[in-house]
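ok trying this again, last paste got cut off
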Amino acid sequence: MNATIARLTMATLFGHRRGLLLFILPGVLLALCLLLALTLDDSADFSISLLQLFGLAVIVPLVSLLAATGALSSEIDDGSIVYLLSKPIKRSTIILTKALVAIAVIFVLGAVPMFVAGLILDVHDPQTAVAFGIGSLVAGIAYTAIFIALSVISGNAVTIGLIYALLWEGVMGQYVDGAKTLSVQQWSLAVINKLTDHADVDSAVKLPIATILLLAVTIIGLSLAIARLRSLILSTAE
């Protein structure tokens, strides 16, 4: 962890319009939950569906996309990453620091809003709210590894990540049986299912397999990003 890189990354994340979006997305989720809680006689009937189909499948991936790509891809796009790479700092330190900053942002603007949304929809079931908060953080960690790796591999990381988040996680990962096995959303649902006894929470992937896949994606994604960043300075120098 490098404090200077972390501080600069936070300034980059919240110094542009994407910083506003990072607050708008969880705000939309909370506003919708509050509206349902005030207008429906029993919003608890819709809590799991809303938290999963909108919160976990849409809001969490989008917040993760903005946080992870904003932590790195913007510096690569404008060329300022060269100044950072010219310093005697390990490439692994750069990637891991930026990943930790992104995960911290996801915790505050993804996991915590999911927990609060769960309480708004069903204040009598805090266990499920906590489960969705933890599940969102777990998903956010895996998404961070995926999107940071994508940031150093492609100059169109945001576009590709958006297609992945909305099409694969938002649609395929919910409704296509074969795709569910390879969905971060389903892996995190396995964790949520373990943490709550709510009958409506279900996952297409068993917890042991989901845990292995979450760890594998996180490790592979971050390792790939580190390796690619090491070659990036060589290409720049040439």
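PB: full thing came through this time. The radius of gyration is 18 Å.
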